Amino acid sequence: MKKHTLKRIIALLCACALTFLGVIGSPVTARAEHREYPYDVDTEWTPDDVEEMIDYATQWVGKIDYASSQNNTDPGNRRHEELHSGGATDCSWFVFHVLYRFGLLNDFVHSYDWGNSPSCYPGAHNISNSISNAVPGDIICTGAGTKPQNSHVAIYIGNGQVVECCAGRGVVISDAPSHPRDIVHFSCIPTEYIDKGVDVE
Q1: Which long-range contacts (CB under 8 A, 24 or more apart) does 115-121 make?
Q2: Does residue 32 sit in the same domain as residue 131?
Q3: Residue 46 and residue 51: Cα distance in Å, rounded?
Q4: Same domain as 122, residue 31
Q5: pLDDT score of 38 more than 70
Q6: Global pTM value
Q7: How many Cα atoms are found within 13 Å in the side-chain-facing hemisphere of 97?
Q8: For the segment 118-146, what is each residue's pLDDT rounded down to a tens digit?
Q9: Domain range for 3
């Protein structure tokens, strides 16, 4: 059984148990839908797990706009909402929503903390600043990394590309920089890839 299939079953059983005990009102809440898998950075993923996350992230290309508090384009905090067609977010919140859904993050991580503050993303570590060492699912950090205005993060999807949310473009697939500021790798994600792409058959 795939790791994520098992995790989905566990999450559903926990939600049902909490409902029965009266802890929550319903097993199907906005938060429960947002987190498809329980938080777990220890269990090793399969290549299929990685591909599922990449497929989820890339499905939003062209469907989500950019909105940020940094340029006053998000007065209603739309970036905090679960990803949905016609929505809007920024680079940090896009990465958060994807990783939260797949159980890799519990708390929001700012773009300038990626690569600088490992305590913000348990189970992951900085590996290098050469894109040749990246595998799908890694977090690519660019910019100076000292404040939101000069920091950016994206998700590596393989074959020298990232999926990201950019000002003026929304969610797009772009060429990855050859030497980003940092690359963050979650230890539970396997590194055995053909040409470090997402095609592992």
Answers
A1: 115/139, 115/141, 115/145, 115/181, 115/182, 115/183, 115/184, 116/145, 116/182, 121/184, 121/186
A2: no
A3: 9
A4: no
A5: yes
A6: 0.81
A7: 26
A8: 999 999 999 988 999 999 999 999 998 88
A9: 1-38
